[in-house]
Specification:
By secondary structure, the chain is of the alpha/beta class. It has three domains: 224 residues, Aminohydrolase, N-terminal nucleophile (Ntn) domain (Glutamine Phosphoribosylpyrophosphate, subunit 1, domain 1); 181 residues, Rossmann fold, CATH 3.40.50; 135 residues, Glucose-6-phosphate isomerase like protein, domain 1 (Rossmann fold, 3-Layer(aba) Sandwich), CATH 3.40.50. The strands form four sheets. Strands 3-2-4-1-10-9-11-14 form an eight-stranded antiparallel beta sheet, with helices on one face. Strands 5-6-7-8-12-13 form a six-stranded antiparallel beta sheet. Helix 14 links the parallel strand 20 and strand 21. The longest helix has 19 residues. The chain binds fructose -6-phosphate (F6R). Fructose -6-phosphate (F6R) binds next to helix 8 and helix 14. The site of fructose -6-phosphate has 15 residues, from helix 8 and helix 14.
């Protein structure tokens, strides 16, 4: 979703900000803008991609910009950031949502202040211009007035910059050539990093940095090659990331091996797994393993639908799974858990994320940055984490021959060829996916991938349920994808006959790609999902869609 990037330093700030915003593109955006300083702040805005922004010839040393993913108000130039106050003194970019923006706006309108956009950001700009007093104090007052989440870069007309953070992330990096600011740590390269804390205000004035809320600023060394941003031999990030699964799992294994897993889990016998979308599907797998293999009490909840039972026992562990650690629905759940003194474990790919800072325990997936909107390698790493943890909890001496495992996985992936399946499926407007038991969970995820990347309606179903209603959809145009990784062949054969006798065709993905029935069942869901990930990617390509940026979707869903 929205991204913020800023630069103050020796180099051409406009160019630096443009470069920085390009690194944030993966989050998804529909318009963009940059403010640059030279005799007050000047602004360039554009609808669509950063390539649509006008070039600026002038050298400028201070600039900041924004990629917008519309939430408050339509996609148009007026709503695009940066926003400027009515007196032109304040120029602002903003990530997050101000919940009481409407009431503040109403009271400002009563003071004859005009608004030109539908955004809550313009409300902040005008509020700052309206408030009396010194500029530092006006910025401080924002914390007393604004409700909601916000990270802000505020440029004052004399060139001073204020960074403000509440709930939404913002980071500052001091590098040799200047100061970099970004809402996304992974876009920052090398230097001394400060991850802003809630209620921080940092003022940058003539290149000097001060925290005017008097919080201590602990800078840490930050090295980041931003290798994740180079495509290499691949055409898209989604493709690259799918094929990075084996190495990501290997890195996750070496990380897990050095964690005291049993120490975390030994206090608990009841587990609630919480997530959204793909992460929720990995929760379902985790829950199942904990319940069936470890005989623990376990359940899964969608974060967006979660009602916390306030009487949490001290043996109850809440496990949030979130690739980004920034998903608003999950943050809300984490807040509730903390408010009730519940214990929280986060499984994430982003160790410095908002939820990571709220959690009692952290377990990482080591998938390196995931840029494509669709989660692929991180999902497989989450599955690996659950499988490995379950094994370790069963047997403290457990180990896996990771080289052998990743070799099997690599060989398996190399042999997945989907061309003829793509030809058969690309013109389908609907698809039914059938399976049983844990395969059904893999199909929930497979269905999500095909819906989000290929825009095809897919229905994942327990195979035995087909005859209880959905069979009426089957005709000679129906393509049914089946998954059967267990030894139980008979039940799906019956369903296959039911479909074929109505003219439909059934393709068994496990047979087509030879999912070896002897693979350790804990790890099998990793093997089950990969053909579907590759298939959804290739169908998107065949239809001319951009798999990295499916329409209407953003990588990190930072609004509820
Ligand atoms: C789908 C996808 C989403 C995310 C969901 C949660 O491919 O990526 O469904 O899984 O938005 O995101 P995180 O894991 O960042 O909390």
């Amino acid at each position: 979703m929205c991204g913020i990037y800023g630069y103050i330093g020796k180099l051409n700030a406009y160019e630096k900000v443009l470069e920085g915003l390009k690194l944030l593109q993966y989050r998804g955006y529909d318009s963009c803008g940059i403010a640059y300083y030279g005799n007050g702040f000047q602004i360039n805005k554009a609808i669509g991609t950063l390539d649509n922004l006008e070039k600026v010839d002038k050298e400028t040393k201070i600039a900041f910009g924004h990629t917008r993913w519309a939430t408050n108000g339509a996609v148009n130039i007026n709503n695009t950031h940066p926003h400027v106050s009515f007196d032109k003194a304040f120029t602002i970019v903003h990530n997050g949502i101000i919940k009481n923006a409407d009431s503040i706006k109403d009271s400002l309108i009563k003071q004859d202040i005009a608004f030109y956009s539908d955004t809550d950001t313009e409300v902040i700009a005008n509020l700052l211009a309206y408030l009396p007093g010194k500029i530092d104090n006006r910025v401080k007052q924002l914390f007393n007035i604004l409700e909601g989440s916000y990270s802000l870069i505020i440029g004052y007309k004399n060139g001073d910059i204020y960074l403000v953070k509440k709930f939404s992330p913002l980071n500052l990096l001091q590098a040799e050539d200047g100061i970099y600011i970004s809402s996304d740590i992974s876009s920052l390269k090398q230097g001394e990093l400060y991850t802003m804390q809630d209620n921080d205000i940092i003022k940058i004035s003539k290149n000097s940095i001060s925290n005017i809320t008097n919080h201590q600023m602990n800078f840490v060394k930050h090295e980041n090659s931003i290798k994740a941003y180079t495509l290499g031999k691949f055409k898209h990030y989604m493709q690259k990331e799918i094929y990075e699964t084996p190495i990501s799992i290997e890195n996750t294994y070496y990380y897990l091996k050095n964690q005291k897993i049993r120490k975390i889990f030994k206090h608990y016998n009841k587990f609630t797994f919480i997530g959204c979308g793909t992460a929720y599907h990995s929760c379902l797998v985790g829950e199942r393993l904990f319940r069936e293999k470890l005989k623990y009490e376990a359940n899964s909840e969608l974060a967006s639908n979660y009602e916390l039972n306030k009487s949490i026992s001290r043996h109850h562990l809440h496990i949030i799974v979130s690739q980004s650690g920034e998903t608003a629905d999950c943050i809300k759940v984490a807040e509730k858990i903390r408010a009730c003194h519940g214990k929280l474990l986060l499984i994430t790919n982003e160790p410095t994320s908002t939820i990571a800072r709220m959690a009692d325990y952290l377990i990482l997936t080591k998938a390196n940055k995931e840029l494509a909107v669709a989660s692929t390698k991180t999902y497989c790493c989450q599955l690996f984490v659950f499988a490995y943890i379950c094994h370790v909890l069963k047997d403290k001496n457990y180990d896996i021959n990771i080289c052998q495992f990743t070799k099997i996985l690599n060989d398996y992936m190399t042999n997945i060829k989907v061309t003829s399946l793509v030809e058969k499926l690309q013109s389908s407007d609907k698809m039914i996916l059938i399976g049983r038991d844990i395969d059904y969970i893999s199909l929930l995820e497979a269905s999500l991938k095909i819906r989000e990347i290929d825009y095809i309606y897919t229905i994942p179903m327990y195979s035995g349920e087909l005859k209880h209603g959905t069979l009426s959809l089957i005709d000679e145009n129906s393509n049914i994808l089946a998954l059967n990784t267990s030894d139980d062949i008979d039940k799906l054969e019956v369903v296959k006959n039911e479909i074929e006798s109505r003219g439909g065709s059934v393709i068994f993905i496990d047979k087509l790609y030879r999912i070896d029935k002897s693979i350790d069942e804990y790890y099998k869901p990793i093997f089950s999902i990969i053909p579907f990930q590759i298939l959804s990617y290739e169908i998107a390509i065949s239809k001319g869609y951009n798999p990295d940026m499916p329409k209407n979707l953003a990588k990190s869903v930072t609004v509820e």
